[in-house]
Amino acid sequence: MSKDYKTIWNNCLRIIRDTLQNEQVYNTWFLPIVPVQLEDNVLTLQVPSPFFYEWLEEHYIDILKKTIRRELGPGGMLRYSVVVEQSIEGNPYKTLLPSSGRKAIHNMPKDIPININKDDIKELPNPFTIPGIQKIKIHSQLNENYTLENFVEGDCNRLARSAGYAVAENPGRTSFNPLLLYGNAGLGKTHLAHAIGIKTKENFPDKTVLYVTAEQFSQQFREAAANNNISDFMHFYEMIDVLIIDDIYFWENKVPKTQDAFFHIFNYLHQRNKQIIITSDKAPAELTGLEPRLMSRLKWGLSADLQVPNVETRIAILKQKLENDGIEMPYEVIEYIAYNINNNVRELEGALISLMAQSSLNKKQITLDLAKQMIDKFVKNTAREITIDYIQKVICDYFNLPIESIQSHTRKREIVQARQLAMYFAKKMTKSSLAIIGLQCGNKDHATVLHACKTVTNLTETDKKFRFWVEELEKKFKQ
Ligand code: ADP
Ligand code: MG
Questions:
Q1: Which of 150, 216, 214, 215 is nearest to 188 (CA)?
Q2: Rounded to the nearest whole angstrom, what is the distance from the C-alpha of residue 281 to the centroid of ligand 2?
Q3: Mutation pick for ligand 1 pocket among 346, 347, 352, 353 (CB with most ligand atoms within 8 Å)
Q4: Is the bond preceding residue 35 a cis peptide, omega within 30 degrees?
Q5: Which ligand has the shortest distance to the CA of 161?
Q6: Closest to 116 in 3D by CA, of 136, 86, 90, 131
């Protein structure tokens, strides 16, 4: 029989899957297990968390025991290892101390995970102790691509981003505790939350940072409750230095017990100057479905919103993504995407990726035409609304004027006309109010916009050349 631990574990998996006859259980509890070594007939399996380990012990020990013995023979033994920090370079098992405590399978409940790093034991004052675990390193669950450096700054996110920096410099000790990041979907809440976690880790490698979605948190809580493990659950969260809870709206109008548990964890951490970061797609005042006492806590710190990026920021985001991927694209194409996809960074990225995929699949160059075709398809489903920005851009391109001229105070006839046309089309093609249109077209008031609309209508009726322009522009907007 081959002694390759991977093969052995794969064989075990096959048997377990057949025996269980339950895909969901198999996927949840067995697929995440990673075999790490086989030595002296002891198979070491890495499990993602202490909860996981306990769950296996309680529910699946028999099947594990039987299967492993079947593969390794009656002397076969099993050892668990609870997951360690993945940021440790290369093989996480470098951090393992060799353990002498190998026990036969029937003793497994006491043969507890062994990821112990001597240094940690000294440094961390509050180790998570289920019997036998002196200290586990908690996997932060941070996505290393979501860095602060990759998070393009713009007016839309300046407050949130700089609050994030401040928190990462001094977690738990600024007045931004909790830090609540809110904003619509696809505007960067998750990215920024990870980024703060990553920066904190860079600044303070010894701090325990944990990113968890509100949904995962409540699921873990439910599992802990079902297993009478709530105190371990609480204990686990109490040892976190920087706790990031993503998408807290998930708890609205449900999971009162989860909210209750979080409330206690919140208090515990906050009293000890530990940092809490929360994201939400609603402003705090609108999160009415949360427990009132939890709500009141969320208002203690800073709420920073993420807004829709303006066109310059959208261009900067696209450029950065391209640069990161080492891809070049004509500037007019970047501009076209940025002007046309305007309310969601995730969609902006999606469009870019589709365009690159299109071009490589069909071996076509990325051109403005290709971008137009693709964006039309891409945006149809999301009901594209033309923006005032875009209207200004098309008009300025048409008359060959710099885009800034619309904002200027000049009374040059051609510029006044371009501005009036922008106001006219904005009124016609967007849902923006006269006040907003005025504001965006050179900081004018609503009366000026009304006047512009009338002027354009009149001129279209009386002036042939002007009518021609309006018709041409109309065609461009419909393209
Ligand atoms: P949310 O959590 O608010 O729904 P995400 O954080 O998932 O949004 O962001 C969606 C996508 O947009 C991610 O791929 C993220 O990297 C990207 N993104 C959002 N804002 C920025 C930004 N300012 N700079 C760079 N990328 C961004
Ligand atoms: Mg998110």
A1: 150
A2: 8
A3: 346
A4: no
A5: 1
A6: 136
Q: Which of ligand 1's atoms lies nearest the C-alpha of 279?
A: 2
DSSP labels, 174-229: SS--SEEEE-STTSSHHHHHHHHHHHHHHH-TTS-EEEEEHHHHHHHHHHHHHTT-
C-beta separation of 234 from 205 below 8 A: no
Q: What is the DSSP letter of 250?
A: G
| Boundaries of every domain in the chain | 5-99, 137-305, 311-380, 390-478
Query: Which fold is adopted by the domain 137-305?
Result: Rossmann fold (3.40.50)
pTM above 0.85, yes or no: no
Nearest-angstrom CA–CA distance, 419 and 411: 10
Residue closest via CA to ligand 1's atom 9 equals 188
Q: Which amino acid residue places its CA nearest to atom 25 of ligand 1?
A: 151
311-380 has which fold?
Helicase, Ruva Protein; domain 3 (1.10.8)
CATH of domain 5-99: 3.30.300.180
pLDDT(118) > 60: no
Residues with CB under 6 A from ligand 1: 150-152, 157, 183, 185-191, 317, 345-346, 349
Other C-beta atoms closer than 10 Å to the C-beta of 192 total: 25
Measured from the Cα of 348, ligand 1's closest atom is 12
pLDDT tens digits for range 398-415: 999 998 999 888 889 999
Cis peptide before 178 (omega within 30 of 0): yes
Q: What is the pLDDT of residues 299-327, one digit of tens each?
A: 889 999 999 999 999 999 999 999 988 88
Q: Where are the beta strands (DSSP E) in 198-310?
A: 209-213, 242-246, 275-280, 302-305
